[in-house]
Amino acid sequence: MADISTKPYIIRAIYEWCSDSGLTPYLAVAVDSQTRVPMEFVKDGEIVLNLSLSATNNLTMGNDAIQFSARFSGASRELYVPVKAVIGIFSRENGQGMFFPKEPEGVKEIVGVVADVDAQQKPASKVEDKLPQKPVVKKSHLKLIK
Asked: How many domains, in total, are found in the chain?
């Protein structure tokens, strides 16, 4: 029997904890070829999304993907985030949550434009050289403004 990943369950649990505690759940995502997010807000191949009830509409957190619509610069957008692309879920207010190691997407590199992923393939040896030996936990680039 195949192992079932605990990652989607942990994501939902931290989301529930944030919501129950009156905190704002944020989702950190490593953008890959299957991720559908506003590319103009992606920085260094990553994006951080606000998952609060007031920021999302029709939020669905499944075992394979997280889907919802949200407003960016006043325009409603449909977002699709595969669970494998999630690198963290945490509270905006105190930073508590859970971070996961990035899951490589085969030999494809994460690029800024989704349509160019297939054109940007590199030989496996070059990609393996770029992968970190140990998982690197990045600190959030968000600043708390009061």
From this structure: 1
